[in-house]
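Lab manual, section 2.4: Encoding a predicted structure.

Procedure: take the sequence of the chain (247 residues), apply the prediction step described in section 2.3, and record the output as structure tokens. A sample record is shown.
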Amino acid sequence: MPEKTRAPAPKRSFSDLLLTLGRPLLRISLFLYLREVRDGVYPRDLPVRTLAGSRTLTLLFFGDITVSGHGVLSYGLTVEARTSDFVAAATDRGVHWDVVSAADLTMAQVAGRSTLDAQGVDVVLLLMGIPDVLLITRSEQWARDLRCVVAAVKREAGEDARVVVAGIPPMSDFRPIPSPLRGLIDKQVHRLNEASRAVAESDDSVVYLPFPIERVSEMYIQQQFSWRTMHALWARSLADAVVARLP
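Recorded output:
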């Protein structure tokens, strides 16, 4: 019998090889990130998650430190509270919002939940990605998990519900990072953001919203950087996306 020939192994791209080699370094960055987050500044007051008004809209936020209030001392300054403020002002309606947040929250963890508790929700906002970047989640897996989340939103909240996927911010601008590692992080951020964009282009119920500032470092030049400013700028973009897609 003729000897069977083994199919050649698929070629790995140079960028895939770099990510593989950089995995241990990114794991270290994940550890440092979690330690820094643990010791960070957070709101000290009690959260208020309802703005009174007629025909109340309900928002549901999922996120890592982006919706935890990192860097501000009041819940009223967080991205979810400011987003709700802007939505209420633009629609003249009441707004209620809930938050699911953890420093290490990944898209796979959200997709794997038995329920999103999204019943009655009008818009789900996903501010995800920092742990997935440092864990080197593949863009294909990210896209599959995102589609699972979207399907769960429609199943629980109905076909009219909308999903806003926020772009992952330029992480390497937030802290000094050696050049080789900076390149790996930037590449991974780009990969996952492009995967989110592709999912949104294939589903009318999903909106992909790029991070509102091209480079965070520009804020140091144009104005004094503050987390309060960051939350407000991001909230304005999120609110515009929510209002534009309301039925």
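Check your result against the sample. The longest strand covers residues 57-63.
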